[in-house]
Automatic annotation (TrEMBL):
It is found in: Secreted. This is CREG1 protein. InterPro entries: CREG, CREG_beta-barrel, Split_barrel_FMN-bd. Residues 1-15 form the signal peptide. Residues 17-185 form the CREG-like beta-barrel domain. Belongs to the CREG family. One of its GO terms (cellular component) is extracellular space. The gene is Creg1. Keywords: Glycoprotein, Secreted, Signal.
Length: 188
């Protein structure tokens, strides 16, 4: 029974961090989520200058408790409308939530309940350089293998979310602010 319990914890990315460890919580939630809502300022006709949210697959590394770098990687094409927004203004926010994992349903938490932790990252989207492309590819394709077969003529590229601000909502009492330095200095 102990081996099964340990295996289940490892498969799910480990136990959820306590609320007083906001930086670890941010890393944990990102690492256990496969997608997020990316908000940009639209450049589309009729929406120009308005907030626009879209779903994107993300990954900070291969699944498992030791696989996460904390860097949200994305696989993008200039054909995508949100990427067109980012070409004009690279600033964005990215929200990830444990609502997409079994955790919140298991505990009967509504996605809006603070105990169903969600993290809001603010920053900008940047293309990764050649030296980081291998890490981004491994992170994304290990979780999203379908990406490898996406049409080559779409000119896909690897990008990352360059984090400047982090807000954690994982308990009652309001948001917690985590600096990028705090975030990257802990393990999920």
């Amino acid at each position: 029974v102990l081996c099964v319990t340990v295996a289940l914890l490892l498969a799910s990315g480990g136990a959820i961090p306590p609320p007083e460890e906001a930086a670890r919580m941010a890393r944990f939630v990102l690492h256990n989520c496969d997608w997020g809502a990316l908000a940009t300022l639209s450049v589309q006709e009729g929406l120009r200058g308005q907030p626009f949210a879209n779903i994107f697959s993300v990954s900070d590394g291969p699944p498992g408790p030791l696989g996460g770098s904390g860097v949200p990687y994305l696989y993008l094409t200039d054909m995508e409308i949100s990427v067109q927004d980012l070409e004009i203004n690279s600033n964005a926010s990215l929200t990830v939530s444990l609502a997409q994992t079994p955790y919140c349903k298991k505990h009967k938490y509504d996605p809006q309940n603070p105990l169903c932790a969600h993290i809001i990252f603010c920053g900008s989207i940047v293309k990764v350089n050649d030296s980081e492309a291998g890490l981004a590819k491994k992170a994304l394709f290990s979780r999203h293998p379908e990406m490898e077969s996406w049409p080559k003529d779409h000119n896909w590229f690897f990008a990352k979310f360059n984090i400047t601000n982090i807000w954690v909502l994982d308990y009652f009492g309001g948001l917690k602010i985590v600096t990028p330095e705090e975030y990257y200095s802990v393990k999920p």
